[in-house]
What we know:
- The chain is an alpha+beta fold.
- The chain has one helix and five strands; from the N terminus they run βββαββ.
- A five-stranded mixed beta sheet has the order 2-3-1-5-4, covered by helices on one side.
- A hairpin with a 5-residue loop joins strand 4 (58-61) and strand 5.
- The radius of gyration is 11 Å and the shape is globular.
Amino acid sequence: MPRINVRVTPRARVQKIIDDGCGNLHVYTNAVPVDGDANASVIKMLAHHLDVPKSQIKIIRGETSRDKVVEY
Length: 72
């Protein structure tokens, strides 16, 4: 299963995903980092971006951090 590094910016004005060209993604979400809302939003956005089901995406490392490792 492929793994990607993700940098999350919660409380952003616009929801978007930027690829830095080296396999890392920067995810801007307007969700707040409370009760897992930001993580849920990141998983939903990544599922749409990568064209995979949400259930296939797992946060491997960084559940409470802005820097995450995601497997899909």
